[in-house]
Amino acid sequence: MEEKRDFLKPAISLAMLVAGIVMAATDVAWFADGALRLAWYVLAFLPVGLGVMKEAWECAAKGDVFSEFMLMSVASVGAFVIGEYPEAVAVMLFYCVGETLQDMAVDRARDNIRSLMEFRPDHATVITGGRAVVKAPADVAVGDVIEVKPGERVPLDGVLLTADAPFDTAALTGESVPRTVETGGEVLAGMIATGAVSRLRVARPAGESAVSRILAMVEQASERKAPAELFIRKFARVYTPVVIALAVLTVAVPYAWSLCDASFAYDFDTWFYRALIFLVISCPCALVISIPLSYFGGIGAASRRGVLFKGGNWLDAMAKVDTVVFDKTGTLTSGEFAVVDVRADDPAALLNAVAAIERGSNHPIARAITAGAEATDVEAQDVTDIPGYGMTATVGGHRWAVGTLKLLRREGVAYPKDLEDVPETIVACAKDGGYAGCLVLADTLKADAKEAVGALRRQGVGRVEILSGDKQALVDKVAAELQVDKGYGDLLPEGKVSHIQAAKGGGRSVAFVGDGINDAPVLALADVGVAMGGLGADMAIETADVVIQTDQPSRVADAIGIARRTRRIAKENIVFAVGVKVLVMALGLAGLANLWAAVFADVGVALLAVLNATRVFFLGEKE
Question: What does each C-alpha distance from 365 to 336, 362, 368 come to in angstroms?
């Protein structure tokens, strides 16, 4: 309904304009009267021209005299003065149609972003004194217990108090498979409970929830202008008074020349008409409208892919990236240990025995071992924890020692020396005083880690590296598996900073991708800092310029592709708009272009530029 109202006034003006042209062409008697014909076109002009002239007046009252609205108003009033009534109406009509279509395109971009954010619930069920009380999320305090029923969205970030439960995280991360959160795990606002009724202890106030942070970043993004946008804005402020001055000179210079040269016949109407054509052509609508729209569209397209740019300036910076440096743990890898190899004569028996010993421990390695073992009735007795070494216990009547190689040396157990060269984490095992084998555990690669590197290569990124605090041997193994250019291990945070400084000093445009608190300094230093937002540390997310909400490293290539497409479309619009305008300006001053050509050069070019800018909405996911 609103879109229909937007087109109602232009429709009335168009109908009257066409009717006026037809009546003039068919010599309708009453329309031949000059006063009636003027009144007809004034009525046709008002629906589309009055609003623009009001904008011109309001801008002038605020000190912005040389606005695009003033250009359009002067041109249309001048057309009335010289009797070109249809052209006067057409200037405003097509300008308003272009503005309406542009507003629709901007609204679409806003809707694309808003649709991702409108899942923030407006109420929370708080459990107080054994009863349920419904409150606004903003009124719920940290530490309160809230209840979420199946199918409801989680209103606030919290810690799960009840049994393990699945949650649909698609709104936050784009994952199609629900994620199971264990008791004591974090549940984020915006997730949907898909299992039983769950209770959470609120961890953050409403204003600091995951959803609120995402929304704030998106809102701020549209305010952070890209260099191209800032250039157009500054350009328009200088450009408008210059072209008005040139239009005045277009009338004044020939007149002054006629005073000096009696043979030169000066016709005011001719030169005034050319000045009007020059004014209409010179309106920078195509640039002022389409460039910001291109970047806003790029931000919207990226948001649909789970990539949040914190401003149009970072779209521009990402488009120039030629080197991508990844942190390893939590970025290319899952950040969780898993048993990747069991070296023993009977692997299943060894794994089950070690799992029985580790079952009572909450250590990450212990959890990984128990998760990888089969469910058995094997139990351990006399379990003794030896800090810094490992554990001893009795399983099935046999004495076991499991832990580091230091534990085996302490127990006087001989073991293969090549175990000391294994880069991964190992749990060495001894049974009744003899070496029984070992478990090899490693932080597993994310499912799309290889695809991430391949996609970056296809985008033309010349160098991909890994920085990590892990052992160099382990980093080398991951680097070889992913086929990156180089992996650097044994790095403290300052070592990562030094590496990025060296890369930038070599003239490379560097994007760093990380997720931990220790990555914040490097994210701030890189030309573009990219944070893994799904599970990443708050400090890393706040410091970064781009946030990958899905925790998928392959989305970095998507971000580069969208950024490059957006920048390319913005450049196309600048070249196209300026080229057409300069051509028609020259033709207008030479008397070879009429006001209709001026209308095309202004409104037509603006409309085509807007349509070109909207391509990023539909094609932003492809590159």
Answer: 9, 8, 5
List pLDDT tens digits, range 181-204.
888 888 888 788 887 789 999 998
Instruction: Tell me which H or E stretch contains 25.
Output: helix 2-25
Q: Model confidence over 474-515: pLDDT tens digits?
A: 889 889 999 999 999 887 667 888 888 888 888 899 999 987
8 A C-beta contact, residue 48 and residue 10: yes
Pairing mode, if any, of strands 192-193 and 165-168?
A: antiparallel
Count of positions (residues) in the chain: 623
For residues 579 and 94, which has the higher predicted lDDT (pLDDT)? 579
Instruction: Provide the residue type at 351 as one letter.
Output: L
Q: Tokens representing 349?
A: 């028996």
225: left (phi over 0), alpha (psi -120 to 50) or beta: beta
CA dihedral (470, 476, 477, 478) in degrees, to 10, reads 70
d(CA 457, CA 448): 14
Angle at 59 between CA 55 and CA 61, to 5 degrees: 115
DSSP state of 490: S
- Which entry of 144, 157, 327, 602 is annotated as an active-site residue? 327
Residue 300 parent element (H or E)? helix 285-304
Report how far apart, in Å, the C-alpha atoms of 18 and of each of 8, 26, 40, 80 are.
Answer: 15, 12, 11, 17
Say what the pLDDT of residue 511 is. Answer: 93
Q: What is the pLDDT of residue 469?
A: 77
Name every residue whose Cβ is closer than 8 Å to that of residue 169 and which is 6 or more positions away in sequence: 175, 178, 179, 188, 191, 534
176 phi, psi to nearest 5 deg? -85, -20
Query: What is the SS3 string spanning 134-166?
Result: EECHHHCCCCCEEEECCCCECCCCEEECCCCEE
Question: What span, in angstroms and rounded, lies between the C-alpha atoms of 142 and 122?
Answer: 17
Q: How many CB atoms lie within 10 A of CB 457?
A: 14
Sheet-wide strand order for 145-148: 131-135, 124-128, 145-148, 198-202, 158-160, 186-187
Q: Which one-letter amino acid corresponds to residue 332? A: L
Q: Tell me if residue 327 falls in helix, strand or coil.
A: strand
Alpha helices in 404-529 (DSSP H): 405-410, 449-458, 472-482, 493-505, 520-525
What lies within 8 Å, CB to CB, of 121 at 6+ separation is 137, 152, 153, 154, 155, 189
Is 452 a residue whose pLDDT tops 50?
yes
Hey, which residues does 487 pair with through a beta bridge?
466
Q: Are 68 and 236 in contact (CB under 8 A)?
A: yes
Secondary structure class of 299 (helix, strand, coil): helix
Q: Which of 86, 13, 84 is nearest to 48 (CA)?
A: 13
**Which amino acid belongs to residue 393?**
A
Name the strand (E) or helix (H) holding 48: helix 34-61
Residue 577 and residue 256 in contact, taking contact as beta carbons nearer than 8 Å: no
Active site residue 327: yes
Residue 301: partners with Cβ closer than 8 Å, 6 or more residues away: 112, 562, 566, 616, 617, 620, 621
Yes or no: say if 145 and 199 are a contact pair by the CB < 8 Å rule.
yes
Note the pTM of the prediction, 2 decimals: 0.61
E strand intervals along 517-623:
528-532, 546-548
